[in-house]
What we know:
mainly alpha, 61% helix, flat
Amino acid sequence: MTDANRIKQVSGWIEEAMNDPDNFSPLNIAKEISAIYLTEHKTRVACCKYCGEWFKFERSTKSYCSGNCRRLAFYHREKSKAKGGAQAN
């Protein structure tokens, strides 16, 4: 992707955000720009299954950006299982 195409893509995101101010988030635009940069520079990246942040990885099986996200995902998963089990009784 050329620089001109990148600029068009980012401009499109900004235009969409301006048309829908309720969903506007400069942080989301920054995340998208960094994702484009990382993928174009052949860096192996993935999106965290818990917080949605992009992160570099070495193992293809890595699903979370940090140990904290992994623990929180496990905690919430177990909490929802317990809650669902209690409702069934």
